[in-house]
Amino acid sequence: MADGQFPPPRTHTNPMPPLPPSTAAAAASAAALQQLESLLPRLSTLSHYKQYHARLLALGSLGTCPPLRARFLDRLALSPHAAALPHALLLLRSLPAPATNDLNAALRGLAASPQPARALLLLAGRLLPAPAPPRPRLDALSLSFALKAAARCSDALATLQLHAILVRLGVAADVRLMTTLLDSYAKCSDLASARKVFDGMHVRDVATWNALLAGLAQGTEPDLAISLFRRLARTYWELPPREEPNEVTIVAALSACAQLGALQDGLCVHEFARTIGVGDNVRVRNALIDMYSKCGSLNRALEVFRSIKLEDRTLVTYNTTIQALSMQGHGTDALKLFDEMPEWIEVDEVTYLAVLGGCNHAGLVDDGRRVFNSMRVPPSMKHYGAIVDLLGRAGRLAEAHDMIMSMPFPADIVLWQTLLGAAKMHGNVELAELSATKLAELGSNVDGDYVLLSNVYASKARWADVGRVRDTMRNNDVKKVPGFSYTEIDGVRHKFINGDKEHLKWREIYSALDDIVSRISELGYEPETSNVLHDIGEEEKQYALCYHSEKLAIAFGLISTPPGDTIRVIKNLRICGDCHVVAKLISKAYGRVIIIRDRARFHQFEDGECSCRDYWTTEIVNVAKEGLRQQQRMTGSSTELLDARPTMIALSSFTFSHDPRQQANSW
């Protein structure tokens, strides 16, 4: 070999020695695991999941690859197949030492399942085998899934216990976890605790604000929801990006406005939505339709509906608009919109319920039957309730009763209350007694049942039976729901109860009522004392009628707003017949539009007419006549006035809402 040259490379005549058996097995196992990783997103059937589980067992990967096992458990627990979640729990129970991720996967599936309470049982270790394996350590995710389960169960005690656990674990600074805790308290109707959690959070994000807003709006404190939104809106320009409101914030605030009928606040929320750039969001627009309609501004609601492009409209858009038309008595328009729905939007049970409600409010019996018989979804109890109510109001009591008896499932309390209301409306004592008996068998003990039955007896002047029903109410400690109304003046809501003297301007209100009675008497008004079905004197009956809460609210509106302004009133019960007559006459005498939202629907009074076309009051004129005639025969008084003014007769305690548990201003 010459100097400076490199030696030739060595050549190996023998091949490389084979890998040790353990190394080869490890490589094959790694390849198999990689293949399983790629297959995991493609699992779709229960058979796939079982084969995958068997493959994991064969490879021994359940114990050697916890991340893959946890991902498989998570996918299995969230599978839509009914048998998948039990299989996931079976897998969890088979593990000798489950990890936190394994537990979280099962908790997540159980929390989203039809039986969320089982997530709480699993957390307590009651779903694990005995003797139980070592319990995995809980983390923030474990508590988050458990809190979601507690919220779905409305389990306030479990929420409180989980709150204590997260404090003990030292994770109370986790913003997302504390937001979930707040949401759970709110959904368990513990709004005071939800507010304490919110106030105690040093760091919040928009989800925190939204959770409290939604909890207050959907709970019992929509006023506080609006106050919270005002606070958020005032500080909008100072908020950090994580707390800036979004479309969910707007939807929650609009929900609160809709509950209260707070139109001025709703207009402000609408303007704020435009300011932050979510005014065109379809969810916001759907909420605007709902808010405007429930505040009695149907024209604004329809403007919002028309502003949504056809291709952007959703099922919720149509359901909300149909419901808006139905609630204001535009049953024909609701049916027309239902028929015009695009084919690509699949109607659901809510759609049919809204359409049936429109037929009910407008008295469209045949159309209602046609819609009910052509439903493309199985009718639920609510659908049967709507058609029974429709038939009952039309006086087709036998058909309504037959409908209940032919249902594929037993009638619930609300259905029998609906039939009882129809029996009361048409003075059918036998059907009323049958319905009352069924309600007693089902354990119902609400004031509306007794009020309805008592009113049927009173319409027939059966005062002894009225007394017996009232004695039963006393013995069973049944309290009648008090009627109240409120109206909004300059953004401030004023609440009134029957005979209210708590308002600062009660003297001016009572004086205005005297003026109202004087002016509408010139139009032929006389108090409809047939509305008060007590065996008391005529003068006492007139006094009982004069100071109903809706009359006080209207009178306050008249003295607090300029001439020509619309007066809007929200009432928790059904408007009584006398107040209905008075509102019509006030609209004529004072040239005002009066909009009253009661438990069942809207009534828009203008120039002496009502949008309900008296459908919900004049049906029971004959019943009122008969009851009053029987009483007058006993006292020897005249019935000439009754016969001379049949269109002015309306019996308040005989009107009936779809939820008869909230009934009647007076007996």
From TrEMBL:
A Pfam family that the UniProt record links to this protein:
E_motif
Q: Name one GO molecular function term.
A: RNA binding
Q: Which InterPro entries match?
A: DYW_dom, E_motif, PPR_At4g14850-like_plant, PPR_rpt, TPR-like_helical_dom_sf
Q: Where is the signal peptide?
A: none
Q: Name the keywords, alphabetized.
A: Repeat, Transit peptide
Gene Ontology CC: cytoplasm
Q: Where are the PPR repeats?
A: 205-239, 314-344
Choose any GO biological process term that the UniProt entry carries and state it.
mRNA modification
Answer whether the UniProt record assigns the keyword Transit peptide to this protein. yes
Q: Where is the DYW domain?
A: 524-616
Question: Where is the stretch described as Disordered?
Answer: 1-23
Does the entry feature the keyword Transit peptide, yes or no? yes
Comp. bias (Pro residues)? 1-21
Q: Which PANTHER family match?
A: DYW DOMAIN-CONTAINING PROTEIN, PENTATRICOPEPTIDE REPEAT-CONTAINING PROTEIN
- The entry's protein name is DYW domain-containing protein
Q: Which organism is it from?
A: Paspalum notatum var. saurae
What are the leading ranks of the lineage?
Eukaryota, Viridiplantae, Streptophyta, Embryophyta, Tracheophyta
